[in-house]
Design brief:
The protein is α/β, with parallel strands linked by helices and 240 residues long. It has a single domain, classed as P-loop containing nucleotide triphosphate hydrolases (Rossmann fold, 3-Layer(aba) Sandwich). Helix content is 34%, strand content 24%. It contains 8 helices and 9 strands. A 6-stranded mixed sheet has the order 5-6-7-3-8-9, with helices on both faces. A 3-stranded antiparallel sheet has the order 2-1-4, with helices on one face. The longest helix is centred in the last third of the chain and has 16 residues. The chain starts with 9 loop residues before the first strand and ends in a 6-residue tail after the last helix. 41% of the residues are buried.
Length: 240
């Protein structure tokens, strides 16, 4: 598995997203380069999900532009997203992957080995014939990850992928995210779990009220945050 790196960096240039009179993202300027996971943190309503959806092309900027590798909007094959509560198709675990591969235009003769590869990546190879909707929450999230990877995306967006999972299932998802990142795929994810952000992030982006408050290497952010908001957020204080 490898990522089509010509689509990176992913750059936001003055991106604003509004719904009526409500501004959700406010003049976001951000550059996401190839490398380890970029993790979005911030309080509820800070704009994390909207930023991911806009990068995915599911929400449109009211102002500004998004470019991929210095060019305009990327083709859908360059990106994939997994939401907090993924929908499972009424098929087996393997059938969910086969459907995604067919939709991605993968030749029939290549699908069997690709299904096996993807299920091994997420640790579900022994559940290939299990109905997907009978899997546990953590298993369904891993299947959703495998399904999203069927297109070999350059960037994988994850919206709070472990928010509703117990610690054991969350740890398994984190292990999968590590493996995906090591495959060369850029992971951009949101989380409310600062411990998880410390474990996974190469880069931290703190959002508040639709704006980027601070962005930079995770090690520097956690050891010496620059902004007042970052210091308060790391101390467990509410941002208002």
């Amino acid at each position: 598995m490898h990522a089509p790196v010509p689509y990176l960096p992913l750059a936001f240039d003055g991106v604003t997203v509004a719904a009526g009179r409500t501004t959700i993202l406010d003049r976001i300027t951000l550059r996401l380069a190839a490398g380890g996971p970029s993790v979005l943190i911030g309080p509820n309503g800070s704009g994390k999900t909207t930023l991911l959806r806009t990068a995915m092309g599911l929400s449109l900027p009211s102002l500004g532009q998004i470019t991929w590798g210095g060019r305009g909007s990327s083709p859908p094959v360059a990106r994939a997203i997994v939401f907090q509560h993924p929908v499972m198709l009424r098929r087996s675990t393997g059938g969910n992957i086969r459907y995604a591969l067919k939709a991605a235009g993968i030749a029939r003769q290549a699908r069997k080995s690709r299904v096996a590869q993807l299920l091994e990546l997420v640790g579900l190879e022994k559940l290939i014939d299990r109905p997907a909707r009978t899997l546990s929450g953590g298993e369904q999230q891993r299947l959703a990850l495998a399904r999203a990877l069927a297109r070999d995306p350059a960037v994988l967006f994850l919206d709070e992928p472990t928010a509703s999972l117990d610690p054991s299932a969350a740890k398994t998802i984190e292990d999968v995210i590590h493996r995906v990142s090591q495959c060369g795929i850029k992971v951009v994810m949101s989380t409310h779990d600062l411990g998880q952000a410390r474990r996974l992030a190469s880069e931290i982006i703190l959002l508040h009220r639709g704006r980027v408050i601070e962005a930079g290497p995770a090690s520097a952010f956690f050891s010496a945050p620059k902004s007042v908001e970052a210091k308060l957020f790391l101390a467990g204080e509410l941002l208002v």
